[in-house]
Amino acid sequence: MKKLILWTFLLIPSAIMAQGIESGKQDMPVKWEELTSPDFITAVEKSARTCVIPLGIIEKHGPHMPLGTDLIDVREVAIRAAEAEFTIIFPPFYFGQIYEAMQQPGTVAYSPQTVLAVLQETCDEIHRNGIEKIILVSGHGGNNSLLPYFCQMQLEKQKDYAVFLFRPVDSEEYEDKLNRMRQTDWDGHAGETETSQMLAHRPDLVHLDKANSQSGKDQQRLESLSFAYTAIWWYAQFPNHYAGDGSYGTAEMGKLIMENKVGQLVEMIRSVKSDRKTLELQRQFYEDSKDPLKTDQ
Ligand SMILES: [Zn+2]
């Protein structure tokens, strides 16, 4: 049985390739920072008032990949998806949860208050600019608890916009294909799959010859604990902030992974753009919440 540690890009990539993906078909830039002010107005309409925030982080990626790996990868996926189905891509965003890598050089870890405040204020600012639906696309496994919580937080105060988190699900067909390509039987942060993704679009940033200069093996230092989650678990298992063996990465595998993610993201963007229910239900919910005693019992 192959043991996989899912600690990298996005949650779990998946399968069904959306119909009609053609990149580079847009007549204006998809990146917020590349639009002019006049074009921004058109872009908001063209996007059906949607915007994607690709969320990365600045942390060690083994001894062989750049600190911004998650940011670089997730933005590439989001940009490719937006070129197929127009939406606006927010500028590089690297605020998130990354305390477990603070012992490694180059990590940038903001306080929880700052992370939540920056993300909320960013969403508020995006909405002030006419966007009603904001899509979060995470490139960082360390955000897997933070982002669903951030989405839940949105109900606390009334808002005229909705936040959606991209949650891909792998198909069996895709998983079989990926597993046939695998050369390592355990894989995680900066390991075979994550290294493959970077090799597929930025091979110049990968130093494959360095991938074995540190161990990415599980150190099993908290094996005596049962049914317990504790903050130091990651450091206990992977003190080098490296899980797996990136030296087996291939561009071919990376291409498969990225195409799979882009396909699902295109499908998600399309569904969010055409969605009318979410905002309607949110409005009804806020209205009902003002006077709970009037809610039918
Ligand atoms: Zn990563």
List the main descriptive attributes of the protein structure presented here.
297 residues; two-stranded parallel sheet; disordered N terminus; binds zinc ion; Rossmann fold; four-stranded parallel beta sheet; 9 helices; alpha/beta; 38% helix; globular
Quick take:
This protein has 297 residues and is α/β, with parallel strands linked by helices. It has nine helices and six strands; from the N terminus they run βαβαβαβαβαβαααα.
What does this structure look like?
With 297 residues, this protein is of the alpha/beta class. It is built from 9 helices and 6 strands, in the order βαβαβαβαβαβαααα. Helix 2 (69-84) packs across helix 8 (251-274) and helix 6 (192-201) crosses helix 8. Mean pLDDT is 93; it is low at 1-20. The protein binds zinc ion (ZN). The site of zinc ion has 7 residues, from helix 2. Zinc ion is lined by residues 8-9, 61, 69-70, 189, 194.
SSE layout and pairing:
Elements: E1 3-4, H1 37-46, E2 50-55, H2 69-84, E3 88-89, H3 112-128, E4 133-138, H4 146-153, E5 162-165, H5 172-181, E6 186-187, H6 192-201, H7 233-237, H8 251-274, H9 277-290
Parallel strand pairs: 1-6, 2-3, 2-4, 4-5
Helix pairs in contact: 2-8, 6-8
Bound molecules: zinc ion.
